[in-house]
Please model this.
Amino acid sequence: MPVGIAGLDLDSLPRSRASTPGAEWALTRQAGVLRLVVLARAEGRHLLDGLEGETTSETGGTLLVGPASPRNAAALRRHLDWLRPRPLGTRTSAGMGDRLGLATPGHVRAVRAVGGGIAPVFAQQSIREMARTGRTPIEVMDDATWGIFEEGWKEGVGADADHLKSPVDVDGCLAAGFSLFTIDPGEQVDSSADTADTSSLRAKTAALPWADLEDTETALRKRFLGRTFTVEHLRIRFDEATLLRAAAKYGRAVAHVAKMGRHLCRSAGGRAVELEVSVDETETATAPAEHYWVASELVRLGVSWVSLAPRFVGRFEKGVDYIGDLAALETDMAAHAAIAREMGPYKLSLHSGSDKFSVYPIAARQARGLVHLKTAGTSYLEALRTVAGVDPALFREIYAFARERYETDRASYHVSAGVDRAPLPAAVGDAALAGVLDQFDAREILHVTFGSVLKETGPDGPRFKGELYRLLRAHPEAYARNLEAHFERHLRPFVG
Ligand code: ZN
Model:
Protein backbone atom coordinates (compact mmCIF):
# COMPACT_ATOMS: atom_id res chain seq x y z
CA MET A 1 0.00 0.00 0.00
CA PRO A 2 1.47 3.39 -0.91
CA VAL A 3 2.48 5.34 2.17
CA GLY A 4 0.73 8.65 2.72
CA ILE A 5 -2.16 7.82 0.45
CA ALA A 6 -5.05 10.27 0.67
CA GLY A 7 -3.08 12.21 3.26
CA LEU A 8 -3.11 9.33 5.76
CA ASP A 9 -0.09 8.39 7.78
CA LEU A 10 -0.13 4.68 7.10
CA ASP A 11 3.07 4.14 8.95
CA SER A 12 1.55 5.04 12.29
CA LEU A 13 0.68 1.41 13.10
CA PRO A 14 2.95 -0.60 10.79
CA ARG A 15 2.31 -3.98 12.45
CA SER A 16 -1.35 -3.81 11.47
CA ARG A 17 -0.61 -4.11 7.75
CA ALA A 18 -1.96 -7.25 6.14
CA SER A 19 -2.46 -8.55 2.62
CA THR A 20 -5.15 -10.87 1.37
CA PRO A 21 -5.89 -11.80 -2.25
CA GLY A 22 -7.32 -8.62 -3.74
CA ALA A 23 -6.74 -6.19 -0.88
CA GLU A 24 -4.37 -4.53 1.59
CA TRP A 25 -5.51 -3.77 5.13
CA ALA A 26 -4.16 -1.44 7.82
CA LEU A 27 -5.02 0.69 10.82
CA THR A 28 -3.94 4.24 11.46
CA ARG A 29 -4.22 6.30 14.60
CA GLN A 30 -4.79 9.98 14.12
CA ALA A 31 -5.27 12.25 17.13
CA GLY A 32 -5.94 9.19 19.25
CA VAL A 33 -8.64 7.86 16.92
CA LEU A 34 -8.28 4.54 15.10
CA ARG A 35 -9.22 4.42 11.41
CA LEU A 36 -9.44 1.35 9.21
CA VAL A 37 -7.82 1.65 5.80
CA VAL A 38 -8.47 -0.86 3.03
CA LEU A 39 -7.12 -0.70 -0.50
CA ALA A 40 -9.03 -3.09 -2.73
CA ARG A 41 -7.82 -3.92 -6.19
CA ALA A 42 -10.36 -4.52 -8.96
CA GLU A 43 -10.53 -8.24 -8.21
CA GLY A 44 -11.03 -7.56 -4.49
CA ARG A 45 -13.66 -4.85 -4.85
CA HIS A 46 -16.33 -7.11 -3.29
CA LEU A 47 -14.29 -7.19 -0.05
CA LEU A 48 -15.49 -3.65 0.61
CA ASP A 49 -19.13 -4.78 0.72
CA GLY A 50 -20.23 -4.68 4.32
CA LEU A 51 -17.51 -2.21 5.33
CA GLU A 52 -18.43 1.36 6.19
CA GLY A 53 -16.38 4.45 5.41
CA GLU A 54 -15.44 6.87 2.65
CA THR A 55 -14.27 5.36 -0.59
CA THR A 56 -12.12 7.03 -3.23
CA SER A 57 -10.55 5.81 -6.44
CA GLU A 58 -6.80 5.59 -6.29
CA THR A 59 -4.32 4.37 -8.87
CA GLY A 60 -4.01 0.99 -7.08
CA GLY A 61 -7.73 0.40 -6.71
CA THR A 62 -10.50 1.57 -4.39
CA LEU A 63 -9.46 3.03 -1.05
CA LEU A 64 -11.78 2.85 1.93
CA VAL A 65 -11.14 4.79 5.12
CA GLY A 66 -13.59 3.98 7.86
CA PRO A 67 -14.20 4.06 11.60
CA ALA A 68 -13.24 1.37 14.13
CA SER A 69 -16.93 0.52 14.32
CA PRO A 70 -18.79 -2.70 15.21
CA ARG A 71 -19.70 -3.18 11.56
CA ASN A 72 -16.11 -2.89 10.41
CA ALA A 73 -14.87 -5.15 13.21
CA ALA A 74 -17.37 -7.83 12.14
CA ALA A 75 -16.26 -7.47 8.51
CA LEU A 76 -12.61 -7.76 9.51
CA ARG A 77 -13.32 -11.01 11.36
CA ARG A 78 -15.06 -12.30 8.25
CA HIS A 79 -12.22 -11.46 5.88
CA LEU A 80 -9.12 -11.93 8.06
CA ASP A 81 -9.45 -15.39 9.52
CA TRP A 82 -6.72 -14.94 12.17
CA LEU A 83 -9.02 -12.45 13.90
CA ARG A 84 -11.78 -15.02 14.28
CA PRO A 85 -11.70 -16.79 17.68
CA ARG A 86 -11.29 -20.54 17.47
CA PRO A 87 -10.87 -23.46 19.87
CA LEU A 88 -7.35 -23.69 21.26
CA GLY A 89 -7.54 -27.28 22.42
CA THR A 90 -5.11 -28.47 25.04
CA ARG A 91 -2.30 -26.08 24.13
CA THR A 92 -0.91 -24.06 27.05
CA SER A 93 -3.01 -20.93 27.02
CA ALA A 94 -3.62 -17.69 28.82
CA GLY A 95 -6.70 -15.51 29.07
CA MET A 96 -6.09 -11.82 29.48
CA GLY A 97 -9.33 -10.13 30.39
CA ASP A 98 -9.55 -6.45 29.65
CA ARG A 99 -12.16 -4.46 31.49
CA LEU A 100 -11.54 -1.18 29.68
CA GLY A 101 -11.10 -2.61 26.19
CA LEU A 102 -7.78 -0.93 25.42
CA ALA A 103 -5.34 -3.54 26.72
CA THR A 104 -5.08 -6.01 23.85
CA PRO A 105 -2.08 -4.35 22.13
CA GLY A 106 -0.06 -4.68 25.35
CA HIS A 107 -1.25 -8.27 25.81
CA VAL A 108 -0.21 -9.19 22.28
CA ARG A 109 3.23 -7.73 22.86
CA ALA A 110 3.68 -9.80 26.03
CA VAL A 111 2.68 -13.02 24.22
CA ARG A 112 5.20 -12.13 21.52
CA ALA A 113 7.86 -11.22 24.05
CA VAL A 114 7.83 -14.74 25.49
CA GLY A 115 8.35 -16.13 22.01
CA GLY A 116 5.06 -17.86 21.30
CA GLY A 117 4.26 -21.09 23.11
CA ILE A 118 1.22 -19.52 24.74
CA ALA A 119 -2.09 -19.68 22.89
CA PRO A 120 -3.78 -16.40 23.78
CA VAL A 121 -7.31 -15.45 24.71
CA PHE A 122 -7.68 -11.70 24.41
CA ALA A 123 -11.46 -11.34 24.50
CA GLN A 124 -12.45 -12.66 27.90
CA GLN A 125 -15.00 -11.29 30.28
CA SER A 126 -17.48 -12.68 32.74
CA ILE A 127 -21.12 -11.73 32.47
CA ARG A 128 -20.78 -10.16 35.94
CA GLU A 129 -17.99 -7.87 34.78
CA MET A 130 -19.73 -6.97 31.56
CA ALA A 131 -22.56 -5.74 33.75
CA ARG A 132 -20.12 -3.83 35.98
CA THR A 133 -18.30 -2.18 33.11
CA GLY A 134 -21.47 -1.60 31.05
CA ARG A 135 -20.11 -3.58 28.08
CA THR A 136 -21.81 -6.15 25.89
CA PRO A 137 -20.28 -9.40 24.60
CA ILE A 138 -19.90 -7.88 21.14
CA GLU A 139 -18.11 -4.82 22.52
CA VAL A 140 -15.67 -7.06 24.39
CA MET A 141 -15.11 -9.01 21.16
CA ASP A 142 -14.67 -5.88 19.02
CA ASP A 143 -12.18 -4.22 21.38
CA ALA A 144 -10.03 -7.34 21.24
CA THR A 145 -10.39 -7.53 17.44
CA TRP A 146 -9.02 -4.00 17.00
CA GLY A 147 -6.12 -4.67 19.33
CA ILE A 148 -5.20 -7.95 17.61
CA PHE A 149 -5.41 -6.28 14.22
CA GLU A 150 -3.37 -3.28 15.36
CA GLU A 151 -0.54 -5.51 16.57
CA GLY A 152 -0.74 -7.89 13.61
CA TRP A 153 -1.12 -11.06 15.73
CA LYS A 154 -1.87 -13.77 13.17
CA GLU A 155 -1.18 -16.95 15.17
CA GLY A 156 -4.79 -17.44 16.23
CA VAL A 157 -6.84 -16.51 19.27
CA GLY A 158 -9.53 -17.90 21.51
CA ALA A 159 -12.30 -15.85 23.13
CA ASP A 160 -13.63 -16.76 26.56
CA ALA A 161 -17.20 -16.08 27.66
CA ASP A 162 -16.34 -16.41 31.32
CA HIS A 163 -18.43 -17.49 34.31
CA LEU A 164 -21.65 -18.16 32.44
CA LYS A 165 -24.55 -19.08 34.69
CA SER A 166 -27.54 -19.49 32.38
CA PRO A 167 -28.44 -20.56 28.82
CA VAL A 168 -29.23 -16.91 27.97
CA ASP A 169 -25.61 -16.01 28.80
CA VAL A 170 -24.43 -18.73 26.43
CA ASP A 171 -26.56 -17.49 23.54
CA GLY A 172 -25.47 -13.85 23.85
CA CYS A 173 -21.79 -14.80 23.78
CA LEU A 174 -22.23 -17.35 21.01
CA ALA A 175 -23.78 -14.69 18.80
CA ALA A 176 -20.80 -12.41 19.46
CA GLY A 177 -18.35 -15.05 18.20
CA PHE A 178 -16.84 -16.39 21.43
CA SER A 179 -15.17 -19.78 21.16
CA LEU A 180 -14.64 -20.85 24.79
CA PHE A 181 -17.59 -21.06 27.15
CA THR A 182 -16.77 -21.18 30.83
CA ILE A 183 -19.67 -22.71 32.67
CA ASP A 184 -19.80 -21.73 36.32
CA PRO A 185 -22.11 -23.94 38.39
CA GLY A 186 -20.92 -22.28 41.62
CA GLU A 187 -24.47 -21.56 42.74
CA GLN A 188 -25.22 -25.27 42.51
CA VAL A 189 -22.23 -26.31 44.65
CA ASP A 190 -23.21 -27.16 48.24
CA SER A 191 -20.10 -26.23 50.23
CA SER A 192 -21.84 -27.11 53.51
CA ALA A 193 -21.32 -30.76 52.56
CA ASP A 194 -17.70 -30.35 53.64
CA THR A 195 -18.62 -30.33 57.32
CA ALA A 196 -21.90 -32.29 57.17
CA ASP A 197 -22.19 -35.59 59.07
CA THR A 198 -23.10 -38.86 57.38
CA SER A 199 -26.81 -38.66 58.08
CA SER A 200 -27.13 -35.20 56.57
CA LEU A 201 -24.94 -36.26 53.62
CA ARG A 202 -27.39 -39.12 53.06
CA ALA A 203 -30.30 -36.68 53.12
CA LYS A 204 -28.54 -34.27 50.75
CA THR A 205 -27.73 -37.12 48.36
CA ALA A 206 -31.29 -38.44 48.40
CA ALA A 207 -32.49 -34.96 47.42
CA LEU A 208 -30.28 -34.68 44.31
CA PRO A 209 -31.96 -34.16 40.91
CA TRP A 210 -31.60 -37.80 39.93
CA ALA A 211 -33.60 -37.51 36.72
CA ASP A 212 -31.32 -34.72 35.47
CA LEU A 213 -28.34 -36.82 36.47
CA GLU A 214 -29.83 -39.75 34.52
CA ASP A 215 -28.92 -41.87 37.50
CA THR A 216 -30.16 -43.43 40.74
CA GLU A 217 -28.54 -43.51 44.12
CA THR A 218 -28.29 -47.29 43.90
CA ALA A 219 -26.47 -47.13 40.58
CA LEU A 220 -24.19 -44.41 41.89
CA ARG A 221 -23.22 -46.48 44.92
CA LYS A 222 -22.56 -49.45 42.69
CA ARG A 223 -20.17 -47.47 40.49
CA PHE A 224 -18.10 -45.99 43.33
CA LEU A 225 -18.70 -47.34 46.82
CA GLY A 226 -15.77 -49.24 48.29
CA ARG A 227 -13.77 -48.88 45.09
CA THR A 228 -10.28 -47.46 44.77
CA PHE A 229 -9.18 -45.76 41.55
CA THR A 230 -5.52 -45.45 40.71
CA VAL A 231 -4.54 -42.20 39.02
CA GLU A 232 -0.77 -41.94 38.58
CA HIS A 233 0.58 -41.47 42.14
CA LEU A 234 -2.89 -41.23 43.70
CA ARG A 235 -5.15 -43.89 45.17
CA ILE A 236 -8.63 -42.42 45.24
CA ARG A 237 -10.85 -44.46 47.53
CA PHE A 238 -14.58 -43.92 47.80
CA ASP A 239 -15.83 -44.86 51.24
CA GLU A 240 -19.39 -43.81 51.96
CA ALA A 241 -18.51 -40.41 53.42
CA THR A 242 -16.21 -39.54 50.50
CA LEU A 243 -18.74 -40.60 47.89
CA LEU A 244 -21.74 -38.91 49.48
CA ARG A 245 -19.77 -35.75 50.18
CA ALA A 246 -18.72 -35.50 46.53
CA ALA A 247 -22.25 -36.19 45.32
CA ALA A 248 -23.94 -33.89 47.81
CA LYS A 249 -21.47 -31.08 47.16
CA TYR A 250 -21.19 -31.29 43.37
CA GLY A 251 -24.20 -33.35 42.17
CA ARG A 252 -26.36 -30.34 41.29
CA ALA A 253 -23.35 -28.66 39.70
CA VAL A 254 -22.75 -31.69 37.46
CA ALA A 255 -26.39 -31.65 36.38
CA HIS A 256 -26.18 -27.93 35.64
CA VAL A 257 -22.98 -28.24 33.60
CA ALA A 258 -24.50 -31.08 31.57
CA LYS A 259 -27.57 -28.97 30.87
CA MET A 260 -25.50 -25.93 29.87
CA GLY A 261 -23.12 -28.04 27.79
CA ARG A 262 -25.99 -29.57 25.84
CA HIS A 263 -27.51 -26.16 25.32
CA LEU A 264 -24.17 -24.90 24.01
CA CYS A 265 -23.85 -27.83 21.57
CA ARG A 266 -27.37 -27.33 20.27
CA SER A 267 -27.03 -23.56 19.88
CA ALA A 268 -23.56 -23.72 18.33
CA GLY A 269 -24.80 -26.09 15.63
CA GLY A 270 -21.83 -26.95 13.46
CA ARG A 271 -19.56 -24.27 14.87
CA ALA A 272 -16.48 -25.46 16.75
CA VAL A 273 -16.57 -24.29 20.35
CA GLU A 274 -15.06 -25.51 23.58
CA LEU A 275 -16.16 -25.63 27.17
CA GLU A 276 -14.52 -24.98 30.52
CA VAL A 277 -15.95 -26.03 33.87
CA SER A 278 -15.17 -23.67 36.75
CA VAL A 279 -15.93 -24.19 40.42
CA ASP A 280 -13.19 -21.84 41.60
CA GLU A 281 -15.51 -19.29 43.17
CA THR A 282 -16.84 -21.58 45.88
CA GLU A 283 -16.34 -21.44 49.62
CA THR A 284 -14.37 -24.64 50.14
CA ALA A 285 -11.55 -26.38 48.27
CA THR A 286 -12.20 -29.15 45.76
CA ALA A 287 -10.77 -32.38 47.19
CA PRO A 288 -9.02 -34.58 44.59
CA ALA A 289 -11.65 -37.31 45.08
CA GLU A 290 -14.34 -34.71 44.38
CA HIS A 291 -12.58 -33.59 41.21
CA TYR A 292 -12.31 -37.23 40.14
CA TRP A 293 -16.00 -37.78 40.86
CA VAL A 294 -17.10 -34.65 38.96
CA ALA A 295 -15.00 -35.61 35.93
CA SER A 296 -16.31 -39.21 35.94
CA GLU A 297 -19.89 -38.03 36.11
CA LEU A 298 -19.47 -35.43 33.37
CA VAL A 299 -17.93 -38.09 31.15
CA ARG A 300 -20.86 -40.40 31.91
CA LEU A 301 -23.26 -37.63 30.89
CA GLY A 302 -21.44 -37.11 27.59
CA VAL A 303 -20.00 -33.66 28.35
CA SER A 304 -16.63 -32.83 26.81
CA TRP A 305 -14.55 -30.01 28.15
CA VAL A 306 -11.13 -28.56 27.49
CA SER A 307 -10.30 -27.16 30.91
CA LEU A 308 -11.47 -27.32 34.49
CA ALA A 309 -10.89 -24.89 37.33
CA PRO A 310 -11.02 -26.58 40.71
CA ARG A 311 -11.06 -24.50 43.84
CA PHE A 312 -7.47 -25.06 45.01
CA VAL A 313 -6.36 -24.95 48.64
CA GLY A 314 -5.27 -21.61 50.06
CA ARG A 315 -6.41 -18.17 48.95
CA PHE A 316 -6.38 -16.84 45.40
CA GLU A 317 -7.27 -13.26 46.15
CA LYS A 318 -7.70 -10.73 43.38
CA GLY A 319 -4.63 -9.02 41.99
CA VAL A 320 -2.14 -10.19 44.64
CA ASP A 321 0.11 -13.19 45.14
CA TYR A 322 -1.07 -16.50 46.60
CA ILE A 323 -1.81 -16.57 50.31
CA GLY A 324 -1.20 -19.93 51.90
CA ASP A 325 1.22 -22.82 52.16
CA LEU A 326 2.99 -23.30 48.81
CA ALA A 327 4.02 -26.88 49.61
CA ALA A 328 0.38 -27.78 50.34
CA LEU A 329 -0.64 -26.07 47.10
CA GLU A 330 1.93 -28.07 45.15
CA THR A 331 0.60 -31.36 46.56
CA ASP A 332 -2.93 -30.25 45.73
CA MET A 333 -2.04 -29.17 42.18
CA ALA A 334 -0.11 -32.39 41.59
CA ALA A 335 -3.27 -34.36 42.41
CA HIS A 336 -5.58 -32.21 40.29
CA ALA A 337 -3.14 -32.25 37.37
CA ALA A 338 -2.87 -36.04 37.50
CA ILE A 339 -6.66 -36.35 37.44
CA ALA A 340 -6.86 -33.92 34.50
CA ARG A 341 -4.36 -36.01 32.53
CA GLU A 342 -6.13 -39.27 33.36
CA MET A 343 -9.73 -38.15 32.86
CA GLY A 344 -9.15 -35.98 29.77
CA PRO A 345 -6.60 -34.98 29.10
CA TYR A 346 -7.86 -31.49 29.77
CA LYS A 347 -6.19 -28.38 31.10
CA LEU A 348 -6.18 -27.17 34.69
CA SER A 349 -7.51 -23.65 34.65
CA LEU A 350 -6.04 -21.16 37.10
CA HIS A 351 -8.65 -18.53 37.85
CA SER A 352 -7.89 -15.31 39.69
CA GLY A 353 -4.51 -16.00 38.13
CA SER A 354 -3.30 -12.39 38.10
CA ASP A 355 -0.15 -11.69 40.04
CA LYS A 356 0.24 -15.24 41.45
CA PHE A 357 3.97 -15.14 40.82
CA SER A 358 4.83 -17.77 43.41
CA VAL A 359 2.25 -20.18 41.94
CA TYR A 360 3.32 -20.13 38.28
CA PRO A 361 6.42 -22.32 38.61
CA ILE A 362 4.41 -24.86 40.61
CA ALA A 363 1.55 -24.88 38.09
CA ALA A 364 3.97 -25.15 35.17
CA ARG A 365 5.81 -28.05 36.83
CA GLN A 366 2.72 -29.99 37.82
CA ALA A 367 0.43 -29.35 34.85
CA ARG A 368 3.20 -30.10 32.33
CA GLY A 369 1.75 -27.78 29.74
CA LEU A 370 -1.89 -28.72 30.34
CA VAL A 371 -2.72 -25.37 31.86
CA HIS A 372 -4.81 -22.30 31.21
CA LEU A 373 -3.98 -19.12 33.12
CA LYS A 374 -6.82 -16.68 33.56
CA THR A 375 -6.32 -13.06 34.53
CA ALA A 376 -8.71 -10.15 34.40
CA GLY A 377 -8.45 -7.12 36.65
CA THR A 378 -4.72 -6.75 36.62
CA SER A 379 -4.87 -4.96 33.24
CA TYR A 380 -7.07 -2.32 34.82
CA LEU A 381 -4.42 -1.86 37.51
CA GLU A 382 -1.82 -1.32 34.79
CA ALA A 383 -4.15 1.29 33.30
CA LEU A 384 -4.14 3.03 36.68
CA ARG A 385 -0.34 2.76 36.79
CA THR A 386 -0.29 4.54 33.44
CA VAL A 387 -2.62 7.22 34.81
CA ALA A 388 -0.42 7.65 37.91
CA GLY A 389 2.45 8.45 35.54
CA VAL A 390 0.66 10.95 33.31
CA ASP A 391 -1.94 12.53 35.60
CA PRO A 392 -1.11 12.11 39.29
CA ALA A 393 -4.05 14.26 40.38
CA LEU A 394 -6.58 12.03 38.63
CA PHE A 395 -4.98 8.90 40.04
CA ARG A 396 -5.08 10.34 43.54
CA GLU A 397 -8.77 11.17 43.11
CA ILE A 398 -9.60 7.67 41.85
CA TYR A 399 -7.66 6.12 44.71
CA ALA A 400 -9.41 8.27 47.33
CA PHE A 401 -12.77 7.31 45.83
CA ALA A 402 -11.82 3.60 45.74
CA ARG A 403 -10.97 3.70 49.45
CA GLU A 404 -14.45 5.05 50.18
CA ARG A 405 -16.13 2.39 48.04
CA TYR A 406 -14.09 -0.60 49.16
CA GLU A 407 -16.17 -1.87 52.09
CA THR A 408 -19.24 -2.01 49.84
CA ASP A 409 -17.59 -3.28 46.67
CA ARG A 410 -15.54 -6.04 48.26
CA ALA A 411 -18.67 -8.13 48.97
CA SER A 412 -18.55 -10.33 45.85
CA TYR A 413 -14.77 -10.82 45.81
CA HIS A 414 -12.21 -12.87 47.68
CA VAL A 415 -10.11 -10.07 49.18
CA SER A 416 -8.73 -9.27 52.63
CA ALA A 417 -7.33 -5.73 52.29
CA GLY A 418 -7.94 -3.25 55.07
CA VAL A 419 -8.47 0.42 54.24
CA ASP A 420 -6.63 1.35 57.44
CA ARG A 421 -3.51 -0.43 56.15
CA ALA A 422 -3.53 1.27 52.73
CA PRO A 423 -1.54 4.50 52.37
CA LEU A 424 -3.48 7.76 52.60
CA PRO A 425 -3.81 9.43 49.17
CA ALA A 426 -2.52 12.77 50.47
CA ALA A 427 0.50 11.15 52.12
CA VAL A 428 2.01 9.89 48.86
CA GLY A 429 4.01 12.27 46.68
CA ASP A 430 3.47 12.34 42.91
CA ALA A 431 6.71 10.51 42.14
CA ALA A 432 5.79 7.64 44.48
CA LEU A 433 2.14 7.33 43.36
CA ALA A 434 2.62 4.38 41.02
CA GLY A 435 4.10 2.56 44.02
CA VAL A 436 0.64 2.60 45.63
CA LEU A 437 -0.22 -0.10 43.09
CA ASP A 438 2.42 -2.35 44.62
CA GLN A 439 1.06 -2.09 48.16
CA PHE A 440 -1.10 -5.12 49.00
CA ASP A 441 -4.09 -3.34 50.52
CA ALA A 442 -4.20 -0.46 48.05
CA ARG A 443 -3.91 -2.94 45.18
CA GLU A 444 -6.93 -4.97 46.25
CA ILE A 445 -8.89 -1.82 47.01
CA LEU A 446 -8.25 -0.48 43.51
CA HIS A 447 -8.89 -3.91 41.99
CA VAL A 448 -12.42 -4.50 43.29
CA THR A 449 -13.70 -0.93 42.91
CA PHE A 450 -13.27 -0.70 39.13
CA GLY A 451 -17.03 -0.97 38.49
CA SER A 452 -17.79 1.92 40.81
CA VAL A 453 -14.98 4.02 39.36
CA LEU A 454 -16.38 3.55 35.85
CA LYS A 455 -19.98 4.15 36.88
CA GLU A 456 -19.56 7.08 39.25
CA THR A 457 -21.19 10.22 37.92
CA GLY A 458 -20.58 13.86 38.81
CA PRO A 459 -22.51 16.99 37.87
CA ASP A 460 -21.31 16.79 34.23
CA GLY A 461 -21.67 13.08 33.59
CA PRO A 462 -19.22 10.28 34.37
CA ARG A 463 -16.79 11.41 37.06
CA PHE A 464 -13.70 9.38 36.02
CA LYS A 465 -14.53 7.23 33.02
CA GLY A 466 -14.20 9.82 30.26
CA GLU A 467 -10.90 11.17 31.52
CA LEU A 468 -9.52 7.67 32.13
CA TYR A 469 -10.24 6.66 28.54
CA ARG A 470 -9.00 9.96 27.16
CA LEU A 471 -5.66 9.56 28.93
CA LEU A 472 -5.19 5.93 27.90
CA ARG A 473 -6.04 6.76 24.27
CA ALA A 474 -3.61 9.67 24.37
CA HIS A 475 -0.81 7.48 25.80
CA PRO A 476 -1.23 4.10 24.10
CA GLU A 477 2.51 3.39 24.13
CA ALA A 478 2.86 4.01 27.86
CA TYR A 479 -0.08 1.71 28.59
CA ALA A 480 1.14 -1.01 26.23
CA ARG A 481 4.62 -0.89 27.78
CA ASN A 482 3.26 -1.27 31.31
CA LEU A 483 1.09 -4.18 30.23
CA GLU A 484 3.84 -5.90 28.30
CA ALA A 485 6.22 -5.78 31.26
CA HIS A 486 3.57 -6.98 33.69
CA PHE A 487 2.27 -9.84 31.53
CA GLU A 488 5.67 -11.04 30.52
CA ARG A 489 6.14 -11.92 34.19
CA HIS A 490 2.87 -13.87 34.10
CA LEU A 491 3.62 -15.83 30.94
CA ARG A 492 7.36 -16.50 31.10
CA PRO A 493 7.12 -19.30 33.72
CA PHE A 494 4.83 -21.28 31.40
CA VAL A 495 7.02 -21.34 28.30
CA GLY A 496 9.80 -23.79 27.61
ZN1 ZN B 1 -13.01 -17.58 38.00
About this structure: The longest helix spans residues 240-268. The chain has a mean pLDDT of 95. The chain has three domains: 14-68, 83-191+222-378, 382-488. The chain has 17 helices and 17 strands.
